[in-house]
Every structure is written in structure tokens, then in C-alpha cells.
# Entry
Amino acid sequence: MIDLSSGLGWLTWDFLIDAMSWVLIFSGSFFLFIGSLGMLRLQDFWSRLHAASIIDSAGVGLLLFGMMLQGGFTLATLKLAFIVIFLFITGPTASHAVANAAFVSGSRPMDLVEDVTTKRKRKKKVGKK
Amino acid sequence: MRALVLFVILGLLWLGLSGLYYKPLIVGFGVFSCVLCVWIMSRLGLLSGEGPIKDFRPVAALRYLFWLTVEIGKADWAVTRAILSPELPRRQRLISVPCLQSTDLGRTLFANSITITPGTVTVETEGGEFIVHALTDEAADMDNLLAMGAKAASIEEAR
# Structure
């Protein structure tokens, strides 16, 4: 670590790391809030999926990076890195599973302006729209 | 050989998660669970045949990761604006995106990248194309999706 504590007064290296991590944690919380707001506000299943996607990527990502800065070079940071890696693989997979289940069971988004599935899938559509 | 590599990787993962290397009993449990995992994977037939590692280009993957992070950030902001705007997004789309990757790894990467980017979700993966649900007009930008597909294809070895 570079020692900036002498000569710069309150502007120390620790202070900078702390400030950065707080900025990251607060912006992560902001995106968690936006995602939850979107879950309540948007009109159907399909658009709510995207609100959840914000929480998955920006919310959790920024929060965990902020926590990593708090952790420093420790085992806790390594575990947080594992969490980020695994979450970024499993999160989209789970989203896809949910979306695919809805699609196969015949659910379609409201207010579609373009739908490639109406032409080919009309004959074998299962379930009710 | 692959069993050995897998065992070493699992062992390192266990060491990173537990951090205990001085208690023989705990280390024994760790070794046991790694051996169990390798045995289960060999029983599932996942150790033979071609794996994803063969087609993998690490430098291209790192470059792709940076690019994808920036894209996710941009898309996050776009969907945040859509959520906060007074009128809700009322122009949803189900579009078809051609998938030009040659390996399973590339296709998986592309589909997951589309899904993790807010505003687009891969709904169905059949017959050389993905059906993608897009929330807004800018999320449905086909050029952007095709660029992502080309970049995802760049991390797999050309056949």
C-alpha cells in the first residue's frame, strides 16, 4: 500500500478506499431499490423479469465490489469474488429457466409490437394465451 | 488426466472457501468431498469426450468480459430510466436472433450474456436461433445483439 498519510492531512489511502467502497455500496443499494420498484410498477411478468435482472447484475455486483474493498486482501474478499463469479453464471440461467417455462406454457407479453413466434407456432401452441 | 485437473481445481476452491489447512480431520473431509465430486462426474460421463476448455481463448475471454461489463452498465441505466419514466414501456418485442457460434460453450455464453444484460432475456434456444424478449426499443437493437454474438464467437476456437 502507498502511504499517503503524511502531508495530505485527512486525505489518506484508507479514506479513499472507504469512500470508494461506500460509493459502490450506495449505488448498489440504489439499483436494488430501482429493481424492487420496477417489480412493483411494471405491468406484466415479462417486463418484471427485466427489473429482477437489474438487481441481479448492477445491484448485487456493485454491493459485492464495495464489500470487497472493505475486506481488503483477505480470505473474505476471495469468497466474495467466488460469489460474484457463481452468481453471474447461475443468475441468467435461472432467469432463462423461468422465462422459458412461461414461454412454453403459452404466456406472451402484453403490448407486443413484434412477435416472431405467431407465424410458426400457431398450430402447436399449448395452453391458453 | 482431466480427473486430476478437476480434483486440483476443486481442492483449490475448497481451500479458498474454508481457509483451514492445519486440521487433519477437516482437510480429510475436504479431500473426501473433492474425490466424491470427481467420482460423480466420471459416473455422469462428464470427464470423457470433448470439454469446453479445448475451445477456450483466455485473452479474448477477458476482453469480452470487460466489454460485457460496460454493456451491462449501459443497459442497467437504460432499464432504470424505463422504470422511472412516467409512462411504462409499452413496446415489448419477441425477436429472433441468429446464433452463429460453433461450439456449445459459445452458444451458452451468448445466451447467458443476452439474459444478464437488463432489457433482453433469451426465451428459447432452438434450431440455430434464439428467441429473445426485449423490453424497450433500444434493447431490441439488432446490430447490438449481433455485435455481442460476434464477440462471443471470438472466444471459441474456430473449427
